[in-house]
Amino acid sequence: MSLNTHTTTAPADLSGSTHPGEVAPVVSLRGVAKRFRRADGSVANAIDGVSLDVLPGEFVVLLGPSGCGKTTLLRTIAGLERADEGTIDIHGGRVFDAARRIELPPEKRHLSMIFQSYALWPHLTVFDNIAYPLRSRGRRLSKSEVAEKVHDVMRLVGIGELGGQYPGQMSGGQQQRVALARALVDGGDLVLFDEPLSNVDAKVRESLRRELLDMQRSLGFAAIYVTHDQHEAMELAHRVAVMGGGKVRQLDAPARIYSEPTSRYVANFIGTTNEIPATVRAVDGGALVLDTPAGEAVGVAAAEGIGPGDEVVASFRPEYCRLGTAGEGNAWGGIVERVLFLGATTETVVRLGGTDQRIRVTTLGAADHVEGDDITVSVAAARVRVLPIADGEPA
Ligand SMILES: Nc1ncnc2c1ncn2[C@@H]1O[C@H](COP(=O)(O)OP(=O)(O)O)[C@@H](O)[C@H]1O
Ligand SMILES: [Mg+2]
Questions:
Q1: Which residue has the CA at smallest separation from atom 4 of ligand 1?
Q2: Annotation: CATH topology of 265-388
Q3: pLDDT digits (tens, 9 = 90+) for 136-168
């Protein structure tokens, strides 16, 4: 098996419109909830009714701000925390069922976990680090069986020659491969990661991330990966589960999460977005006609059940906007308030005529407008997401 190639093992259908019924999921959560009692006696709903399927070979990232429940969800899947409600299936077998009091211990769940900084044993050789799970699970493997499994997996992750070295002598990339080898040595094809790269400096992190991506795509194990870093999530994931307040707020392919957010919470957590407060005036086929302080706007409903009279926001990305041309769709007049040349792009802030509403616009290269110019901002109606103004989550 060759590493460092972006080929093969694309899971069945990961376009974001998956039909999980067609492929048996590796992990299946239904209605999982976990509460903690705080020191002051109050209750924290760390996980609040999460249902999620992970398909074979799929890389799912749990993304969200600190405290939203990512680690708790991962530990609950691994069996390191006991959920209060719900069921967890792994490889089609029930490993947890709150109502029926089924709870398999972590070592019987056929998964591996990779923590921050990989948690390799510094006093053990690479070989012994990788052999550790084979020797510590009370399994009666012969010496030669252990050696064969360890050598096979070392070759698989491209560290065939390094068995005698100690982790402290190795580069970050090599250490990551040792951690992966240890996770995969026992034949498991489900690996859970809890922010493994968060202690690594930015440059190294980027290259480790690429390597991890290559290895996951070529080896084809299923992964659930926790991070608060949206770039990491976008780069690694087949699907991203954006979490907030213990819930999965949206589960979709990275491109969908970015361009078709279904709540203000998701639109604001990923990238930057413009928001114009508005009231729905009319429904016109697939489009919604809005009244805004800057005049009429047209967009598409991003959630079910939005109708006339509703308070909403029109949400759209800065790079979807055009300047100086009244193209199709929305066009508003305004005044250039700020121009920031950033090299590859220019950030322009436009204050819409007669309002306090500011729109941020990103264009390629240098701009030919200056502060104080009258200008037109336009954005296609299809690019404007009409989102409920309240979505039950502090943004
Ligand atoms: N052992 C615990 N006891 C009490 N509260 C906890 C415990 N572990 C986590 N929590 C709470 O549960 C929520 C989710 O925490 P966590 O899963 O660690 O979030 P994340 O990994 O997304 O930062 C937080 O409000 C946190 O304070
Ligand atoms: Mg955490």
A1: 36
A2: OB fold (Dihydrolipoamide Acetyltransferase, E2P) (2.40.50)
A3: 766 778 899 999 999 999 998 999 899 999 999
Radius of gyration of the chain from Cα atoms?
Answer: 25
Q: Do the Cβ atoms of 185 and 140 come closer than 8 Å?
A: no
Ligand 1 atom index nearest CA of 226: 21
Averaged pLDDT of the chain: 90
Domain boundaries, the chain: 20-264, 265-388
Size of the chain in residues: 395
The pTM of the full predicted model, rounded to 2 decimals, is: 0.90
Q: How far apart are CA 244 and CA 258, in angstroms?
A: 16
pLDDT at residue 358 tops 50? yes
- Ligand 1 atom closest to the Cα of residue 73 is 17
Ligand nearest to the CA of 243: 1
Residue 73 has φ and ψ, to the nearest 5°, of -65, -45
Q: State which ligand 1 atom lies nearest to the alpha carbon of 81.
A: 1
Residue nearest to ligand 1 atom 2, measured at CA = 36
What is 20-264's CATH topology? Answer: Rossmann fold (3.40.50)
| Residue 154 phi, psi dihedral angles, 5° rounding | -65, -40
Measured in Å, residue 246 CA sits from the centre of ligand 1 at 9
| pLDDT tens sequence across 312-356 | 999 999 999 999 876 778 999 999 999 999 999 999 999 999 899
Residue 220 has pLDDT above 50, yes or no: yes
Nearest to 153 by CA among 135, 172, 134: 134
> Which protein residue has the closest C-alpha to ligand 1 atom 8?
72
